[in-house]
Amino acid sequence: MAAGTRSTLLSWVRHLRRGRITGLTGCSRSISTHVPKKSALLKNGLVWSSLSLLAIGSYSWKKRAAVVYASIRVEDVKEQADYLYGSGDTEKLHEFLSQYRQSNDAEVLWRLARASRDLAQLSKTAPNDKKKLVYEARELAQKALEINESCSAAHKWYAICLSDVGDYEGMKVKIGNAYIIRNHFQV
């Protein structure tokens, strides 16, 4: 509460206790109800109006800041993922991006598909884990394409992952997927 408002309220309380209130006309009289002066009403109105505008302004600023923060966060995730990919730390990259598996950003999902596929290609990865990672990579790339069909990197990594899946499903499936793979590389 502003200092001026506080002093006005305290003076009203003192006058109320004495039984003397100054009305709108400025003359003193004994009454049981409280009627503040025009200037006090105006002053309080300006204080409350200012506080209301301040509250509304801070709410809208906070709302905009939250949106900006969310968009910066996605950009930071992509930047960190690209840095880890460039450093060649595939396991750390996969671990980092796995926490964004439920993302609705195609850019994050194709990077996770790439990381899963690269982890499957490592010689120290167990054969059962390789198969699981290859299928996971295909699903992630497919989800990225469903979110953003114009993302060329998602097309590229979906085609690569589809080719890798063909290694586990046999020659007939691999040949059938060749046309699909070609179409995704031509996008």
| C-alpha termini separation | 63 Å
Mean pLDDT, all residues: 77
Written as H for each helix and E for each strand, in order along the chain, the element string is: HEEHHHHHH
Helix content, binned percent: over 70%
Question: How would you describe what is shown here?
Answer:
This protein is mainly alpha-helical and 187 residues long. The chain has two domains: 68 residues; 98 residues, Tetratricopeptide repeat domain (Serine Threonine Protein Phosphatase 5, Tetratricopeptide repeat). Helices cover 78% and strands 2% of the residues. The protein has a two-stranded antiparallel ribbon with strand order 1-2. Helix 3 packs antiparallel against helix 4 and helix 4 runs parallel beside helix 6. The longest helix is centred in the middle third of the chain and has 50 residues. The relative contact order is 0.06.
